[in-house]
Structure formats: structure tokens, C-alpha cells
Design goal:
single chain, about 450 residues, alpha/beta, Rossmann fold, UDP-N-acetylmuramoyl-L-alanine:D-glutamate ligase, Protein-Tyrosine Phosphatase, Chain A, 3 domains, about 40% helix
Length: about 450
């Protein structure tokens, strides 16, 4: 649905978060006066009445498909759209959309950085950056959109270029189950995506299976098919050049893989066909890691304090451990609010590497998720202890480490048991790091 299709309709915005407020302002500039309602509070009955009379509901992404109110409204025949759906319907042809369980923020930021570094004006928005509204449409030649599974679930238009970074179970309470999560995630590319980049042949097969007939006109490209390769040593591009890990400001093999995805979609984009590929590669040397994503916290106590606070799945924790290994000991702060994710993959990793890569690792489990993980691991990994709070976990990590060692916050779980959000938890971690320098 295009934004102009809303003119003359009875439109109601469901949700007053960042996207709901942006939608209200966008509609106002189109001359549309729309009510904004929030369900579940004291005005629930009035909010539901407004939604039931609407011709079109602009739904905020935080409202899940599993909500009874949503299901009842859907069955009644009301038309739903969203800020992301309106954006892609209006500007999908100039959009590079990035989604995936993990890696989407870093990859989309890398794409945006490469475009701007080589002289093609791009802006970034969506789940990262500013909300995507029609006002942004005239701002740049290219818009890089980070798209969450919540945002992807109901779009009816696709970007011209897409990137799919990774896939494993996440946000299951919102989606209901993993099969629905995959369907909702890949729906982003089910409506005419011309070029899609993904990491592996296995992911390409998953995409094709999920998209079915919609994949018939989508060209899916792997970085390796363009001669791009990532290893612990850095990034190489056949016939173009290479970047050693020491030349890059970001850590981790998984981020080197993210970089190959960003380079691939940039190399395929028509606006960059006249730019030497060596320039695309070199642009990555000035890319700085995002906050809370393997971010080195400046301190003077000699320890490496690494904030990977956005790592809220066990697979992301494994990637962080692989990125931060090396000389010295590592104390991992793991756990938080319970979301009942399967931690078996992390337990197996610790068990398989306990005498090699994890030999100098101690896991400090915290929160309900950490407690469950400790019970799951049992004696499989003896260097695990349980702390009764985040502050106690940091204290334990500090006592176990010295100059030259690493304290890694990679929690594999949300923060809501002790903090408002992951940003508040990361701020607390940074404050502890600074306090150690005093």
C-alpha cells in the first residue's frame, strides 16, 4: 500500500512508540488526521472501538501477530499496513534492505558507510537510525533499511536489493514458533526483490524454500561467487586485494563475514558500477564498530572490557567468544531475563572447546537465564559460577582478571530482569569499566 492510498481513508495508528509517532507526523504532512491508540490500558475499550471502525490500521511493529486483538481485527477484514510497508511501496526501488537474526545492524551500517565513503549519498533508517517516512525519500540516492522480523512480517512490497545475514531462533514469543519466524522474516523479500545477497548456500536454499514461487525472479548471490572471502586473518577479494584484521577497526570473524555481505551488495548495485572494487574494499578501513556490538570500552586498568550487550542469542555469544580469544584470561558475563531459548548450542561449544579455545575462560552466569544455563551445563564446564546480580557478576569478573585479560559482556539474553533495556545494561557495564580505571 502506497502512502497516497491512505488519503481519504479513515486511518488509525495502533501504537505510540517511535514508529507510531513518525507515522502520525508523516500522515499529517499528507493532510491525513489519524487517531493514535494504545490497547491494553485504561482506555482499551475506546481504543478497540477506534480500531474496529478504521478502514486502514497503521500497526506498530511491537504488536505481535499472536495478540488476540490483532487476530480479531484481521478476521474482521480491516486492512493493515505499517511504516515499513508504506516505505517499501513508495521507495522500494531505491532501498537496500538488510535483515537476519544477527548481523543486520552492523551489515546495514557497513553498506551505508561504503556508499557514502565512495561518494554516493546514502542514509540509514528503519530498525536502526531514523524511522522510514516519505520525508526521507527525497534525502538520498540510496536508503539502507535495517528491518526487524517484526517489521518484515506484514510488508506487501519488497526492496530492490536485499541482504539476509543469518538465521536461528529468536523472538519466538512474538512470532509463535520458529517456522512462523522464518516465514515472517523472509516475507520482506516475497514481493519482488530483484537482487538478494546471503552468506551461505544453506541460507540460499532456506530462502528459496521459504519464498517458493516468489523466488523465481530473484537473483540470490553469495559473497564467494564474487570472490569474497573472510577468515580470522581478515577479508580478501580475488583479483581486488585484501585487508588484514589489523587494518580493520572492528573485531571478529562474524563481522568479517558481515563485511563480505556488505561488499557484495555494493558491488552489485548499479550506482556503484563505475567505482573500482578496490575503493569499496578500502572503505571498510574507516568503519568503526557500533555501540554494544563487540565495542571496546576505553579504560586504563589494563583489561580489555568488551561490550557486546546486544548479543541476545547463544549463537551470538559463541561468535563473541571466538572474536575475543587470544592471550590472557576471559571472564564472560552471561545471562539476564528468561526467554526460554535453547542454550544447548553454547553448552556444546563450551564442552567441545574447554581444553583448547575455552581453557582460559570463566563463565559468570546471572539472572534467570544464567541460572538455567548453569543448571544445563552442570559439570560439563567446571569454570562456571553463578552471580545473584549484574553488579555481583562484574565484581566476580574483576576479581578473576588482571591487566592483559578480558571482561566480555555477551549476555545471550535480554536485560529486563534488572534493566530497562540493553542500552541501560551496557551503560552500567561501561560505568563499571570506568570505575576500574580509577
Amino acid at each position: 500500500m502506497k502512502s497516497r492510498d491512505l488519503i481519504g481513508k479513515d486511518v488509525v495508528i495502533w501504537g505510540a512508540g517511535r514508529e507510531g509517532l513518525a507515522a502520525q507526523e508523516m500522515l499529517r504532512q499528507l493532510g491525513i488526521v489519524a487517531d493514535t491508540v494504545i490497547t491494553g490500558g485504561a482506555d482499551h475499550a475506546a481504543a478497540m472501538a477506534a480500531l474496529q471502525r478504521a478502514e486502514v490500521i497503521v500497526k506498530s511493529p511491537g504488536i505481535p501477530h499472536t495478540a488476540p486483538e490483532y487476530q480479531a481485527l484481521r478476521q474482521s477484514g480491516v486492512v493493515f499496513t505499517s511504516l515499513m510497508d508504506l516505505w517499501l511501496s513508495d521507495y522500494g526501488d531505491r532501498t537496500v534492505a538488510v535483515t537476519g537474526t544477527k548481523g543486520k545492524s552492523t551489515t546495514s551500517s557497513m553498506v551505508n558507510h561504503i556508499f557514502n565513503t565512495v561518494g554516493v549519498h546514502a542514509v540509514i533508517g528503519g530498525n536502526l537510525g531514523v524511522p522510514l517516512t516519505t520525508q526521507l525519500g527525497a534525502a538520498a540516492a540510496v536508503v539502507v533499511a535495517e528491518v526487524s522480523s517484526y517489521q518484515a512480517a506484514e510488508v506487501t512490497a519488497s526492496p530492490r536489493f536485499g541482504v539476509f545475514t543469518s538465521l536461528y531462533p529468536e523472538h519466538l514469543p512474538w512470532h509463535g514458533d520458529f517456522a512462523t519466524y522464518v516465514s515472517d522474516k523472509t516475507n520482506l523479500f516475497a514481493h519482488g526483490c530483484a537482487h538478494l545477497v546471503t552468506a551461505t548456500a544453506e541460507l540460499r536454499d532456506t530462502l528459496r524454500d521459504a519464498l517458493g514461487a516468489a523466488a523465481a525472479n530473484t537473483v540470490v548471490t553469495l559473497p564467494s561467487e564474487l570472490g569474497l572471502h573472510a577468515s580470522a586473518a581478515g577479508i580478501s577479494w580475488d583479483g581486488v586485494g585484501s585487508l588484514a584484521a589489523a587494518e580493520l577497526q572492528f573485531l571478529g570473524l562474524h563481522n568479517f563475514h558481515n563485511a563480505t555481505l556488505a561488499l557484495t551488495v555494493c558491488a552489485l548495485h548499479p550506482l556503484l558500477q563505475q567505482v573500482p572494487r578496490a575503493a569499496l574494499l578500502t572503505a571498510l578501513t574507516s568503519f568503526k564498530p557500533l555501540a554494544t556490538r563487540l565495542e571496546r570500552v576505553p579504560t586504563s586498568d589494563g583489561r580489555r572490557w568488551i561490550d557486546d550487550g546486544l548479543a541476545t542469542a547463544p549463537e551470538a555469544v559463541i561468535a563473541a567468544l571466538q572474536s575475543c580469544g587470544g592471550s590472557g584470561k576471559t571472564a564472560l558475563l552471561f545471562g539476564g531475563a528468561e526467554r526460554n531459548l535453547d542454550f544447548g548450542v553454547l553448552r556444546d561449544y563450551l564442552r567441545e572447546t574447554r581444553d583448547t579455545a575455552s581453557a582460559d575462560l570463566t563463565v559468570i552466569a546471572m539472572g534467570p537465564a544464567g541460572q538455567r544455563f548453569a543448571e544445563l551445563v552442570g559439570t560439563d564446564f567446571p569454570r562456571l559460577q553463578v552471580a545473584d546480580s549484574f553488579a555481583a557478576a562484574v565484581t566476580a569478573a574483576r576479581s578473576l582478571t588482571a591487566a592483559g585479560d578480558t571482561i566480555l559482556l555477551s549476555p545471550g539474553a535480554p536485560s529486563f530482569n534488572e534493566f530497562k533495556d540493553y542500552e541501560e545494561r551496557s551503560a552500567a557495564f561501561k560505568a563499571e569499566a570506568r570505575a576500574s580505571s580509577q
